[in-house]
Amino acid sequence: MGIASLSDQELIRAYVAGDEKSFETLLDRNKDRVFGYIISKVRNEDLANDIFQEVFIKVIRTVKNGSYNEEGKFLPWVLTIAHNMVVDHFRKAKKMQMVSESSSKSEDFNIFSVLSLSDHNVEDSMIKEQIEVDIVRLVDHLPDEQRQVLEDRIFKGMSFKDIAEQEDISINTALGRMRYALINLRKLVEKHNVSITV
Q1: Which range among 8-22, 62-76, 160-174 shows the weakest confidence by mean pLDDT?
Q2: How does DSSP classify residue 151?
Q3: Angle at the Cα of 34 (from 28 to 35), degrees rounded to 5?
Q4: For residue 74, which of 8, 22, 44, 52 is within the disulfide window of CB 3.0 to 4.6 Å?
């Protein structure tokens, strides 16, 4: 039985046992799918090649040190690594600036410029989802009044006028709570070392 007829798991076991050719076969079998996935996201061949190499360096290290779980399928696992590296690349490349708290006076206010990107492509969506997860986690640490206003404005898209009516407070009070929420959120971002700005 030739090496090409071995399963991915059998090739991994052979590679760990010292057969370098097994990994070459594994790479040849899966490289088109992995590279195709990466280039579909970054749309730049040189960058895709760089990320592709980083992916397989990580794959080799993980397999060599015995951390690869053989219960999982090899290709989905590698694609997950590729996905994470693509996300990391775009998170580093994008300048994600928090909007100044003074902007909360505007009805068009959004907490992060990245949350109102006009170009809703795949990369932006992935970044947006991860940042929202990080921020939602921190929002829970805000005082209740501040958290409520921020959630109503950002996650529910309510106007400050509607928030004021719902909470039975003045618009100025709603704006003030938002301002303090942003100040405190910035402190939480620094304290918990959440990467929002590059």
Answers
A1: 62-76
A2: I
A3: 90
A4: 8
